[in-house]
Structure formats: structure tokens, C-alpha cells
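tool=predict chain=A
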Amino acid sequence: MFKRKKIIKNFAWLLMVVVAASCVPKQDKQNIETNLPEETNRSYAYGICVDSLALNHYKIERGSYLSSILMDLGFTGGDVQQIIDTISPLYPPSKLQIGSTYATITTPDTTSTIQYLVFEKSKTDYVVVDFCNNSLKVHQSTKPVTIQRRYAEGTITSSLWNAIIESGSSPMLALKMSDLYAWQVDFFDTKQGDSFRLIYDEAWIDDTTFLDIASIEGAVFNHQGRKFIAVPFEQDSTREYFDEEGNSLRKQFLKAPLDFFRISSRFSNARYHPVLKTYRPHHGVDYAAPTGTPVKTVGDGVVITKGYQRGGGGNYLKVKHNSVYTTTYMHLSRFAKGIQKGSSVKQGEVIGYVGATGLATGPHLDYRVHKNNQPINPLTMEAPPSYPVKPELLDSFLVIRDNMMMHLDSMHYVLKKTATPDSLSLNKDVYTQSL
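tool=predict ok
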């Protein structure tokens, strides 16, 4: 059963000590009697002790199928089908992605017998096929993710993106900040001298591999002489960001439906149409962006139209936000998965992708807003804020705000006194919300 050929290529293994139960997952190791000294460090991969095993990593290549991968590893005939049938409920063959990692954990001898086969579903999630004891078992698990708290500050000389990188932080932080201040700051209109200070959490896999910016835990952005403060606070089981007075930073609509763009045409009652070669009203704003750029809905709502205008907007969507406001997104290259007429969408959700369908000379998004069925200029419209902090919670909010500002100020002082780079690692419990 489960005959395989020898695997010789590209394996690196650690042979520290022969353990009687080397074929036991990490979670079961406390049940194993051993004479190893307590200070001996064990090596684990995918929750499996690999001290006396060989770990080999591979990448899924174009044209690969689960069956071909298994046959390349030396499995034959009925074994291949049995493995596919067993793993499919957790990792269907159709979900294989080019470039994804899979791994074999084998005996370190010349037979290279496969003990475990691992498929990584994402950066954190994976599925393990266990062949120990000549049986076939499968389970899925998640790599340990830890949170590291950091502080960063910087002054803009060219762009927020460059200022974030110069501070020693991940450029992904720029995207988080643009989402955080989506209503307050137009990051395509930042000025030289604008500055920021913030405390944020990074997610890491096994404390060694950066995964994502988990959250922003407090921020101050100085923009054209105005100070914009962002305080995280939870009420009604929902975590939102508020200004220093407790007003929500989240308005009914985002300032723009794209993260990064160039305005190529503005709202006008008499714009020269580049395709029709005539003057006609253009009751929207054109955002030039590369094909495939994600388009986000600017507010919560329901998709009321999904269609195609051959002689106009091409692929387009219309979202009704309430009894007053409706937004339209035109010239999309394609719609986001799952978006249908009647779909409920949340603010910031990707609903489509920039394209050049319909009457268009190049890839762009034609974005339109109607108020009470009348077109209005998206660049000049005003929208009311979301709910502020409740009066009965305001005292608790003020404590959180003052504590956050104290730590931002103290971190700024430390940086200036020590002349260190513009970012610091912090204790994760710098401050906590208590209600």
C-alpha cells in the first residue's frame, strides 16, 4: 500500500537525535516518554517534529494537477485516487494555485519514505496528509500567528507611500492609513511637510514571516495645517475609529472608489466626448487607473443594476445606499465574484475592476452619484458622519484617547532623544480598552 519511489532532490534536514516517536504531531508530544534533556530544542514544521525527518518544499507549477503531483512523488494507481478522495473535502483539486507551496516530510534514509504530505492553502492555512503506520489520515491546521506592536512616524516630502517606507515600515501601512482616513484626507493631495505618527500591530507567522498590518491602534495625521486624530474604540460590539471628540471617522461614503488613481475627467454639463467627438453632459468623474484595479463601493447598500451598455458605460453596476443616494460604476473590465443584482455590499467592498468596456479610449472608472435622482458632483458632495460615541461611553472613550495620545507623545520623544530610525517595536500591551 502507498508504494513510492525515492525522493532525492533538494532536501535539507536536521539529524539531531533519533526519537522513537518521530512520526507524532506536535500536539501529541506530551504523551511520549523520552530521556531527552529538557533543554533540548525540537524542530517543528506544520505542527510535526522533524528532528529525525527530512523536510522538502516544492512549488505548484503551471499545468500541474493534484494527480500529477502525487504521481511525481511516486504514488501509483489506486493510491493516487484514494489520496485525492480523502483530501478533497478539505482541499479540492480545483483549488490548486500556481506558485502555492506543498511539502513532503520523509524518512532521512535512502528510501525517503513519505510520512507526511502538506499542501499550503494560504499563507497561514494548510492541510496535512498523514501516512504514518501505513494508514491514510488528513487534517487541516493553521500556522501560529503572533502580533507585534510598533510605532512609526514620518514627514512627507513626495508621497505617503515613500514616507512610510523611509520610516522603516511596511508599505502596506500606507494602504491601511488611506482606508483609515478615507473621508478626512485625500492622499493624492498631500503636501510637502504633512506628517504622521501612529501605533499599529503587525501580524507575523511563527515570529519570522511578516503577514499583514493587523490594525492601527492610534494615529495622528497633520495635513495642510489640520490635525486629524484617529482613536480606536468599541461600542455595540463594533470597533471603529473616532476623532478626538468622539465623532466617527467613517462617513456614509468613501472619498473615492479607488485607492490610487488619476482624475482624467471631471463633472461637467458640457464635456467634449473623446469617442463621439461632440459636447455632451458628463455627470460623473473619470478615474484613470490600470485595467484590473479593484473598484470599491463607497458605502453600504444594495446592487440594483448589473448590466452592459454597448454604446455607453460597458459593464456597469448601480448601488442604492438609502432613499437619497445612488452610485454608479462604469466601464468595468469585470465584476467581482458573487456580485449580482440584489447583492448587499459593505463600504469598501470590491465590486468590480477597472476596464475600458463600452465607449472608452482607455482603462478608467466613470463614477457617478445621484442624490434624490439628480446627478451631483462626487468631488464636492458632503455626507453626514456615522454615529458618534454614545454619551454613556464618552468617559471611557476619553480615557482611551488620552492614553493613546500619551503613548504617541512618549514614543515621539524616545525617537528624537535616541536618534533611532523612525519606527520602534513596542510592548503589545501599550494600552488596552476597558469598558
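Residues 4-24, 26-34, 429-435 have pLDDT under 50 and may be disordered. The longest helix spans residues 394-418.
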